[in-house]
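Input set for joint prediction.
Command: fold jointly, output tokens.
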Amino acid sequence: MTHTFELGRLFDPSSIAVVGASTKEGKIGYEAMENVHDFGGRVYPVNPSAEGSIFGASFVGSVTDIDDDVDLALLCVPAPIVPNVIEECGEAGVGAAVIYSGGFAEAGEEGVEIQRRMTEIANEHNIALLGPNTSGFVVPRTELFGSFATGVENFPPGGVAIVAQSGGVAHSLAFQATRERRGISAMVGLGNRANVGFEEVIEYFDADPETGAIILHVEGTDDARSLLQTCHDADTPVFAYKVGQADVGDFAASHTGALTGDHALYQAGFAQYGVPTVDSTSQLLDAGHVAASAPLPDGTNVGVVTAQAGPGIIIADRLKQAGVSLPSLEDETTETVNDILPGITYSANPVDTGRPMPEFGAVVRAVATDENIDAVLVYELHEAALGFPIEELDGLAEEVGKPVVFATAGPESDLAPDRTELEDAGVPVFESPERAADAVATLATYARLRDDAAPAGVIDDA
Amino acid sequence: MTHTFELGRLFDPSSIAVVGASTKEGKIGYEAMENVHDFGGRVYPVNPSAEGSIFGASFVGSVTDIDDDVDLALLCVPAPIVPNVIEECGEAGVGAAVIYSGGFAEAGEEGVEIQRRMTEIANEHNIALLGPNTSGFVVPRTELFGSFATGVENFPPGGVAIVAQSGGVAHSLAFQATRERRGISAMVGLGNRANVGFEEVIEYFDADPETGAIILHVEGTDDARSLLQTCHDADTPVFAYKVGQADVGDFAASHTGALTGDHALYQAGFAQYGVPTVDSTSQLLDAGHVAASAPLPDGTNVGVVTAQAGPGIIIADRLKQAGVSLPSLEDETTETVNDILPGITYSANPVDTGRPMPEFGAVVRAVATDENIDAVLVYELHEAALGFPIEELDGLAEEVGKPVVFATAGPESDLAPDRTELEDAGVPVFESPERAADAVATLATYARLRDDAAPAGVIDDA
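tokens >
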């Protein structure tokens, strides 16, 4: 898709107009205004029937009345008047607009026509349209809260760009990430994708130095090949969660007006274009988090080190089911491990130390430096007296150029400070053996698919 | 399996001896003593080479020196001397013992022989043996912390009995439950199952009025039919997580000395005997939590109500993949919903209200009372101004005799108080659409399997 708008005016604006700004709490025009009012740039509430001011800013009657270059307009007005507002935005030189309301292509013939007109006008004026039918976007690093939802000001800044077809799913993902203390570079709900689609947003965040991974929630798109090609061309790792394995087509069409399409074709297409797919929102977040915060593996060989056999078996089982290999360790590694822990419970791969112990970090280091190993997954129940082997693991991942991922469980009060230190030392920490295994398996799959990935244009239209 | 010991002396003792109690912090004999020292009954530290006292109790040289009926002995001594200690326990009339140490059947020929001797002696004296090779058990309600792990005193009391083949997995599950504020009636790590196996523990907690669901972590057992028959005979819902779908047999054998067996046969066996199986520790906990805290569904028809289409599609997709049906609603229900919300986004099943709104609770109630529906799953992003429809949902599940399950996301500070109120109102709350869907699907599967479940003895040995 070719476009002439600049997404920087959407995601990194200097000035914002809130059209339909309202003093009535609970209305979208109030919530959106509340969320952007202390954004670092200039903010203009627009409402022809309002007087006075809101959050310290005076109402103006129209975007055309603003004596300033407005980059972004947030439209909190009903569908039927949106085309006119976009026309005014065009006259005023606005560069981008978010359209929150529904009643467009997802809502039958009339809505389809409104969306067509609005998009035509926007394209004439080079206006990027996020939505319609979206709850918006957030860029935590710049405190840009272009969403009407409450609580979005606490999303922690970080390296994962969330790009979801559904605004609701975008917010659900971002709140989940926040609860688990994982940083995001942006959260974007695409909605009906009038002229800003997956492709444009992926390209933008691929070029964003703050973004280390892009995660996609996909219901369906009319041009799957274009989406796949964009993912393929991105240097940043992209992971996708394609919804609609079962038949949910009718309901999905009522949502963002998109067809869910043939699930198997999508899955195959993503694989062929180098994009691992996952089966849940948690897996999507987890893969993004590890990819953004640790080195990527060069291959699919995983070394597992566990202090408790039971969770270690769960991890090994899960990795193998996902097609990941647990190769033999080099003789040198096995010797080192046996030197560190004579009589060790199980010194193949997985390495099972039988219990947490002071030497545990040295064992992990030995496995991480093994040439047969592309990624390391560690399980250790937290023991208050011992803590985690933070010193041995600090910087290890960077040093060996492989992800080192930790899974654990324990009492929150003891665990929390050690978890923070370990994450700061470059080791992502999970509190479920399966989630850690799934994340590592997804990264290993990324390595495999990127090796195999097809060049442009060899896949049939999905 | 017939046995003559009493598991009440293990899980509900009046007096405990800690054999190998130690004043050295970090040693199992210290940690176990610390965990039980202010247990409500009498506690005796036993160590022939220690003098003085520990946690206010005087050391004795042997269990035979204790002038009291000792119900339970916690053995913190190495494998080779365990048979002799069990012999002394027998002389002293001890009713049950937990053997923490490894070096038994999981560790080669010599260990197999030690385990055989120990078990023979225990059986002669009617002593129940938990382990060997386990980190123990916990009964939160009576503050009985028969584990040597730290932090177990914070497990919240509740209705789920965790029965895990691996002590490490038992603890991992209990810490996960604690982190997610879910109560457990007991956590049991079976280890090598010398004479207390799945069957005995399931029977015990099936008869426990505090236990509303039993969740099993299974690596493998020599007598699968006996396990299956016990699950089948239990009135309490049982859910199982069978590990070992991929080939992890060697490593598993090194763990609790058990074969993982043929995974597909186990899965089929569980299904035939009325036990839903799950694929992760989270799914296991989630199914147990809902079964213990809400009415069980009578069938597999689920009604979905969502305030945001995107997460609703994820839920519908996930439910359908799990073989759950989303039937049409009764005409009366559709009319009621359309009366409550004229112009509603999607009034089939799922019902999509498009946004959270004050009428949301009334819509959920309408679907819950629909005769076509056996269970209700609701998704609503939390909005601070609106909260959850607690008043409308309070007691609804009991009233209609169906589980009503909520999934949400939102900022923790706003969400937490509403979540607690909703859970107190009888509505389990999840913060991931997939986890809620998986839990409801597992309960629906339980209803289906219990209808179909085979009578005793019709399955081949698995």
